[in-house]
Design brief:
The protein has about 180 residues and is mostly helical. About 75% of the residues lie in helices and about 0% in strands. The chain has one domain. The radius of gyration is 21 Å and the shape is elongated.
Length: about 180
């Protein structure tokens, strides 16, 4: 029979932290891979736009709306992965120039603000998803909710990654030290 102390050791084990870190890194890598594929698709549809306009003399009108939708997904997925890599929303020259106790405090404050921002983004994005279910995006006939869905996904991932950064720092694995 496992005791509370056994559970505490299992939860705080370096192997569990390493597995969780690898999982979060894999999620961030997946975000970047999906964003990369969408970027290639974005370039391809703009190629089709140019070909249609100048060769076929028939401009595909759906490209503009599809590209706007793709840009939102690319940006949000890249932003979430940037939070995991601790490279997004990072203006740290002032923080890193401070003496050590203040530097650590400001790292936690920065992560806390990122958590709040991500939660707000997810919450407000969810409101947009729910209120735009019946509206269609012109020319591509998808629900307007598809434009807001990346806000929910990105906000949730930002919260997850920022909380993981805080937990990592609390457990003594502060990867900001080298920056």
């Amino acid at each position: 029979m496992r005791t509370y102390a056994d559970h505490e050791v299992a939860v705080n084990s370096p192997q569990l932290r390493k597995r969780a870190s690898r999982l979060l890194d894999a999620i961030a890598s997946l975000c970047l891979a999906v964003a990369g594929v969408l970027l290639v698709f974005l370039i391809a549809i703009f190629g089709w736009l140019v070909f249609g306009r100048y060769v076929l003399n028939n401009t595909p009108t759906w490209v503009e709306q599809a590209s706007l939708l793709l840009v939102v997904y690319i940006t949000c997925l890249g932003a979430a992965a940037g939070v995991r890599g601790n490279t997004h929303l990072s203006i740290d020259f002032v923080r890193e120039g401070m003496p050590e106790p203040f530097r650590t405090i400001f790292r936690y404050i920065a992560d806390l603000f990122i958590v709040i921002f991500g939660a707000f983004m997810a919450y407000q994005g969810w409101g947009l998803v729910m209120t735009n279910l019946e509206r269609a995006i012109p020319m591509i006939k998808l629900s307007e909710s598809w434009r807001a869905a990346p806000l929910v996904i990105c906000g949730g991932l930002i919260v997850l990654f920022a909380v993981a950064n805080i937990v990592s720092r609390l457990s003594g694995n502060d990867f900001d030290e080298g920056n």
